[in-house]
Write a structure and sequence with these properties.
Elements: H1 15-33, H2 35-99, H3 101-152, H4 157-170
Helix pairs in contact: 2-3
Length: 171
């Protein structure tokens, strides 16, 4: 038989009756004060903040992938140009060979050196652009990750546990 159905429980001098009344009043005050709505609002705000951070991270990743694709296309274009320049230099060398062997060796050496410098310059420039872009992407990703970690580090584990217990105790 439940304890609250006994006649002794409803006696005014029974301290358990006053504890029960106090507990009921406490829960009524919490509901009237809007504590469940406040807790739900805080949880919704935190969920919205996390979702916006996830959206921002996805946007940054898409930008990084687009930048990487652009850099790869520029590198391929630079390689194609270097191959075209090398082919042009070889064609010029063949024409000059027919005219004079002495001029051919001198002109070929000059043009080949110039082509190699252009190729080396184009490769160095493409490599520098790739490195700079990768560094920018890494810095942005690190900033996003650190900002997310800093935002989540502000929570209090004891407060989170207490809030979780309120939900189970109210039900």
């Amino acid at each position: 038989m439940p304890h609250f159905l006994e006649a002794y429980f409803w006696n005014i001098s029974n301290p358990e009756l006053w504890v029960g009344i106090g507990l009921v009043l406490f829960f009524v005050i919490l509901v009237v004060a809007g504590v469940p709505k406040l807790v739900a609002g805080q949880l919704d705000a935190k969920a919205n903040k996390i979702q916006s951070e996830l959206d921002e991270a996805a946007r940054l990743r898409a930008e990084a992938e687009a930048l990487l694709a652009q850099i790869r296309a520029e590198k391929a274009e630079a390689e194609a140009q270097s191959k075209a320049m090398l082919a042009a230099a070889e064609a010029d060398a063949r024409i000059m060979e027919a005219e004079a062997k002495a001029k051919l060796e001198e002109a070929l050496a000059r043009r080949q050196a110039m082509a190699e410098r252009r190729i080396a310059s184009a490769e160095a420039q493409a490599a520098a652009e790739v490195k700079a872009a990768a560094a920018d992407v890494a810095a942005q990703a690190a900033e996003t990750i650190l900002a997310a970690r800093a935002a989540t580090a502000k929570t209090d584990p004891q407060l989170d546990a207490a809030i979780a217990q309120i939900g189970t105790r109210l039900n």
